[in-house]
Amino acid sequence: MENIVHTPEIWVKTFGDFGIFYQGKKISAPLERSKKLMDMAEYLVTNQNRAVPKDELYELLWPNEESSNPRNALKTLIHRFRMLLVQGGAPDGLEFILVRHGTCQWNPGLDFGVDAFIFDALQNEAAAETDLQRQKELLKQAAALYQGRFLNESEIWMVAPSTYYHSCFLRAVYQLCDLLRSHGTPEEIIEVCRPALLVDELDETINRELILALVAADHVQEANSHYNHITELYYNRLGVQVSEELREVYRHLADNEQAVNLDVDEICNSLEENASTDGAYVCEYSIFRDLYRIEARSLERYGGRMFLALITITDAHLQVPPLSTLGKTMDLLLEVIKHCLRKGDIVARYSPAQYIALLPTVTLETGEQVLQRIRRAYRKQYPKSRVVLSCKLRPLRPLEREGFGSLAPETAPVP
User: 72-105: per-residue pLDDT in tens?
Assistant: First the structure.
């Protein structure tokens, strides 16, 4: 694979952002002041294997403009392109664009490489490779080359290749994780997944692979932390919960936290919470659901009273606020809820715009006072916030009558 491992004199970067480098130095910075110059360079690099008709290039660069002399406008643009590359550090006289017979073409005689095309070559070789170690190395090289969407999809014509390359990238990462599970280590999977998530932090498969690898590498607390991070990210960025498959992974994390241990005192110590922790206990919804069912069983057997609170934020029209502001608002609200509740209270996020809380040892009256305290504290701390806080309170029912279906979003704010 001489053509792949060879370090070319000229390197063109298309993943994440566009850049032309000569002997390791970026020479395209002066082009960035002109969108037309960048568009022309990107289009010619992408279509390097053919001579692009000048009319096609003119239509791309001046789609809604008429010129009495379009060829002269293009000629001027190409001249500026050459001069600015020299200004950026390219050798004088090095021809990047060939103009002949009514066409323009990226000079195929240059010693150059393009990350997108080398990415393709690496993937193709990996697909044909039978040696697993060699296949693993090729896929690692391909994944490392991909540093973001192809040319950032700044033009319509870039969308199709961008989608193609992103799909190829994800496929390479998935395949690499599969290989490393059977012919590698959890640490290697972690090394693959972390940079991949910098490119696509919402990809659920890569997040799941990372969490499983962290658990396998005995980094269970970090796995828990990452799960909580991705859960919040899905709520705040997409307005949805993570999939049941990912939640199932989280439910099994506890199985990996401890090896067999016969020392009861040590186990007790490991279970103890930091004494300095104040406010309500915050957990993931699946954990909250289990705790709810435990409390419902206790009520069935021993009696007593416990209330369930649902706290919802909406805009003035009783709609879910925009995702652009929802995440931050929910974070601020959670801090208020935590400090207004007691250590024995339990809180979880129920939906993108709702928190649910379990309040033991309260009456209906004191429970309503708690919700009023949360509402007043939020308004006092964030007086400029335009969201409406709506609250609903109901007694916890014994297990035989348990039903989460009634926990619908509140449709009107507490007066």
Answer: 889 999 999 999 999 999 999 899 999 998 999 9
Q: Which single residue is written with the structure tokens 């095309």?
A: 117
Instruction: Report residue 113: phi and psi, to 5°.
Output: -135, 150
The secondary structure of 77-124 as a DSSP string is HHHHHHHHHHHHTPPTT--SEEEETTEEEE-TTS-EEEHHHHHHHHHH
Among residues 393, 398, 368, which one has the least CA distance to residue 310?
393
Please give the Cα distance from 318 to 312 (Å, whole number): 10
What lies within 8 Å, CB to CB, of 64 at 6+ separation is none
pTM of the model: 0.71
Say how far apart CA 311 and CA 410 lie, in whole Å. 8
Q: What is the pLDDT of residue 66?
A: 67
Angle at 270 between CA 266 and CA 275, to 5 degrees: 120
In the predicted structure, residue 273 carries a pLDDT above the cut 60:
no
DSSP bridge partners of 347: 282, 357
Nearest to 352 by CA among 207, 234, 246, 224: 234
Q: How far apart are CA 112 and CA 21, in angstroms?
A: 9
Number of residues that make up the chain: 415
pLDDT tens for each residue of 158-213: 999 999 999 999 999 999 999 999 999 999 999 999 999 999 999 999 999 999 99
Strand partners of residue 112: 10
User: What does the DSSP assignment read for 288-312?
Assistant: HHHHHHHHHHHHHHH---EEEEEEE
Distance separating alpha carbons of residues 132 and 282, to the nearest angstrom: 45
Q: Determine which helix (DSSP H) or strand (DSSP E) holds 347, and give its type and residue range.
A: strand 346-351
Residue 34's pLDDT band (boundaries 50, 70, 90)?
very high
The residue among 211, 208, 217, 220 whose CA lies nearest residue 258 is 220
Position 2 pLDDT exceeds 50: no
